[in-house]
User: Fold this.
Amino acid sequence: MATKGTLTKISAGLLLAVTLLVVIPEGFVTANSLAGGWFNYEGSDLVDGVTHDRDITEIAFEPAIDPLVLGAAVLAGFVVLLAAGKLGLDKIPTTLHGVAAGMAIGSMALVAGTVMTVLVAIAVLLTLVASPEPTGEATLQPVPIAVAAVAAVASYVLLRNLNVEAAALALLFAAGTFLYTSTVSILSP
Assistant:
């Protein structure tokens, strides 16, 4: 039978996998699918989505958002939780993880399909349920779960009224917090 510590490690591993395989790629795809898609065909003869009379080597890749900005969003999410933890603000990282979870769920609901949104929701909510205490025991954490629910609705409403870039950056910031949460959960004794 699995112990609560094992449940914490499994949920952290699931969160890490979902972060690396779903959330981060979705953030990059969303950011780079803005107005012109992955490639800038300006200057070419683009008709019905097909370039004509041009060599394919003439089409340059121009991301809609600089990849360094996208990477900085991931790093910012990681650093915010790391700093909160290092400053001894014990409850803030858990609450921030709840906000990030809600932000990711709300953002995914805007830019991804239902299956991806549900997958992310299950992964992040499972880690909130199995959040470890300092003793290593997993306990139900009602505050971050409630915070995640409110943040999911709020981010969906707010980001729907903004541009797609905001949703992409919100996803990537949340991914950074998930990387922190999952690595801390996996590496904790």
User: Anything to note?
Assistant: The longest helix spans residues 4-32. The beta strands are 39-40, 45-47, 50-52, 60-61.
